[in-house]
Design a protein that fits this description.
The longest helix is centred in the C-terminal third of the chain and has 16 residues. α1 packs parallel to α4, α6 packs across α7 and α10 packs antiparallel against α11. 48% of the residues lie in helices and 16% in strands. With 256 residues, the chain is an alpha/beta fold. The chain has 12 helices and 10 strands. The site of acetoacetyl-coenzyme A has 21 residues, from α2, β6 and α5.
Length: 256
């Protein structure tokens, strides 16, 4: 059993709560390794269709554990390669929703951005305050924040270290939806339940096609999407989904 996480599963949805409340859910190496140890096996489980990652009311996560990192040398950081464990989380193929209440700072903001989308409470606060500590974002913040919100706001956030509230985060594209604080996890679980009920091949190829938009020229991305779209006509789920629409019934997707 992990010490730093609480994990529960309902049907095809797995809810993970980061659970270090006294440290504002600061992300030490143990959180990262427990997270990937728990989720990597579930990533290959055909019955699992979506992950929801959350924290508590005060903090999704207040960043890397500063107390654990303070004394480390360049050599220590190079050898331990702290970012690598989090990249394994980012590489999971199962869709991931971040359900954010409170602070998502530094590594916490970066972890939320590794998810496919973020649902935030009205009181959520996002930021990359590493500059105040004499460092810079280390698990993707300079790259993912810039892609999500554009250069101007990314520079503002990363160079000044200021926080951004949920409304601003939604208006600039960091956050998909803002809901009342006490509805964040339920809203994320509802979205996750919908995703988990769809055809797995369709969900997987949809994610890959959207992710391609960030990594390729438009013409290559469009060709990739076209082939993925066409390839789904080789699945039983496509036949079933369309037949169910025509027959006015709910589809039964099997992932085949
Ligand atoms: N690491 C370790 N401990 C942390 C922490 C962190 N990132 N964030 C908060 N804590 C601890 C505090 O030290 C404090 O512990 P004690 O009670 O033992 O003193 C406890 O959590 C509560 O924190 P505060 O008393 O500071 O609570 P607050 O409500 O006044 O402020 C906060 C909350 C704004 C989140 C503030 O704690 C804060 O600024 N935290 C640091 C945020 C930060 O700089 N994050 C970036 C880390 S570096 C990083 O993430 C690098 C990377 O890219 C991977």
């Amino acid at each position: 059993m992990p010490d730093t996480l609480k994990i529960s599963r309902t049907g095809g949805v797995v809810l993970v709560r980061i659970d270090r409340p006294k440290q504002m859910n600061a992300l030490n190496f143990q959180v990262g390794s427990e997270l990937v140890s728990a989720l990597e096996p579930l990533d290959n489980d055909p019955e699992v269709g979506c992950f929801v990652l959350t924290g508590n009311e005060a903090a999704f996560a207040a960043g890397a554990d500063i107390k654990e990192m303070q004394a480390k040398t360049f050599g220590d950081m190079l050898a331990e390669d702290y970012p690598a464990i989090w990249e394994r989380f980012g590489a999971l193929r199962t869709p991931k929703i971040a359900a954010v209440n409170g602070y998502a700072l530094g590594g916490g903001c970066e972890l939320a951005m590794m998810c496919d989308f973020i649902i935030a409470g009205e009181g959520a606060q996002f930021g990359q305050p590493e500059i105040k500590l004499g460092i810079i974002p280390g698990i993707g913040g300079s790259q993912r924040l810039t892609r999500l919100v554009g250069r101007a706001k990314a520079m503002d956030m990363i160079l000044t270290g200021r926080m951004m509230g949920a409304a601003e985060a939604e208006s600039c594209g960091l956050v998909a939806r803002v809901v009342a604080d006490d509805k964040v996890v339920d809203t994320a679980l509802d979205a996750a339940g919908r995703i988990a009920a769809y055809s797995k091949p369709a969900v997987q190829l949809a994610r890959e096609a959207v992710n391609r938009a960030e990594e390729s020229a438009l013409s290559e991305g469009l060709l990739f999407e076209r082939r993925m779209f066409q390839s789904l006509f080789a699945t039983h789920d496509q036949k079933e989904g369309m037949a169910a629409f025509i027959e006015k019934r709910k589809p039964k997707f099997t992932g085949k």
